Amino acid sequence: MGLFAKLKKAWLAPISWDTLDDDFYDNLEESLILADVGMELSENAVKELQERAYKEMYMTGDQVKGALRDILGKSLNVGDPTLNVKNTPAVVLVIGVNGVGKTTSIGKLAHRLKRQGKKVLLCAADTFRAAAADQLEIWANRAGVDIVRQHEGADPGAVLFDALQAAKARNVDVVLCDTAGRLHNKANLMKELSKLRKIIDRECPDSSVETLLVLDATTGQNGLIQAKTFKETAGLTGIVLTKLDGTAKGGIVIAIAKELGVPVKFVGLGEGIDDLQPFDAGEFLADMF
User: Fold this and answer.
1) Predicted local confidence at residue 87, as pLDDT
2) Any idea what DSSP says for residue 153?
3) pTM greater than the 0.90 cutoff
4) Does 89 sit behind a cis peptide bond, omega within 30 degrees of 0 on the bond before it?
5) Residue in 218, 227, 190 with CA at minimum distance from that of residue 96
6) Which residues contact 196 (CB under 8 A, 6 or more apart)?
7) Arithmetic mean of pLDDT, 249-255
């Protein structure tokens, strides 16, 4: 069973793939739009499919599906989908608004990296939200990894500095850093994230650094707007898409990659600690229909 098999019934609305008439293309375009692929991308994909089907004289539904997977695959083929933790202590800044599953994603990623033999340290640099560090500590215990935290309201930069010193002293492979999920003021957000990045560059100049944005798939196009804002302010290396199992709008994966030019690196497909999985574009498209 494919990784995304549980999404099969939640993907495209049922359509007949065997009659390639105007109604088929209209229904396909509508289905893609409803799945949150996006208006412009859906229109362009169907137009290209129509031209290719006419030129190459497609006769079967399988030919049409294969061509559509190829067309949509070009939109997903952006950047490196793997997590770069080569140079240690690697640092992964995890950003995103509150409520998208940021803390749980960090805990699940910590569990995944530990199972791969990595020594992981969590950094509770979200010091603004009440109980944020407490929640992260619960996940640290579940994953069986250490955590560096301070009191609520502490300077996030100071917490990160302590975490990096601890990482070097303990020969940690990966530091996963939680950050504040405020988006009401882009200037403040930029200032805070820029400060954290300067601390990393100063204290660990040779380390691999990733900036992952956590998005809730159920927010659809609103999530895409969030992603654009964070990309402008923080610079992104990858996306973590959560709650993909709970939405019929899995096409947002394609829209994000196309619009932002940033790869989706992980997807959340459930509530369990093992349910954060690396995103595989080929497998996603294979299961799409």
Assistant:
1) 93
2) T
3) no
4) yes
5) 227
6) 93, 125, 156, 157, 160, 177, 179
7) 79
